[in-house]
Design a protein that fits this description.
Helix content is 18%, strand content 18%. The protein is built from 5 helices and 4 strands; from the N terminus they run H-H-H-H-E-H-E-E-E. It is elongated.
């Protein structure tokens, strides 16, 4: 498409672009879906679908042969491992042991106002046993001792599981 003659001299080599509205693709008007569905017509359409195309449920739904049973060795009753052998297998596993003197619940504003010199009162008496925890689980109770200037714990009771 070329420019009209009156503009061709002013813009040599220019090409005219048609009006977008003139070349726009016309879409068919949108019609609303019917409010009621003709049930008989829908059932007749469904009846026209071949049975091989309709989904089925249950074991009869596939024409595949059953999977072969894998060859697995029979497991005997065997004898349980002794507790000592079980523990030897785990002897080198690292665990975290902690000693808990006590606990305290306090509002967040008190926690935020903690400063050096603050004293927290715990929920246990000074002579009460401390808890010995392994990976967060209570395993024993004991009393605090001092060994060459360091703290230690003398186990007084082991918690039964």
């Amino acid at each position: 498409m070329s420019l009209p003659d009156e503009f061709a001299d002013a813009f040599p080599g220019a090409v005219a672009v048609p009006d977008p509205a003139a070349v726009a693709v016309k879409e068919p008007p949108v019609t609303e879906a019917p409010e009621e569905i003709d049930l008989a017509a829908a059932q007749s359409l469904l009846g026209a679908v071949p049975a091989s195309r309709t989904p089925q449920m249950g074991p009869e739904a596939t024409d595949l042969p059953p999977l072969p049973r894998p060859d697995l060795p029979e497991l005997g009753t065997g004898s349980p491992l002794s507790d000592a052998r079980d523990l030897r297998l785990l002897a080198e596993v690292q665990v975290e042991l902690a000693v808990e003197l006590g606990r305290v619940k306090l509002p967040l504003r008190d926690l935020l106002s903690l400063a050096p010199g603050a004293v927290l009162e715990l929920d246990r008496a000074a002579d009460a046993p401390v808890d010995v925890l392994v990976n967060g689980c209570l395993v024993a109770r004991g009393e605090v001792v001092v060994i060459d200037g360091d703290f230690g714990v003398r186990i007084t009771a082991v918690v039964e599981r």
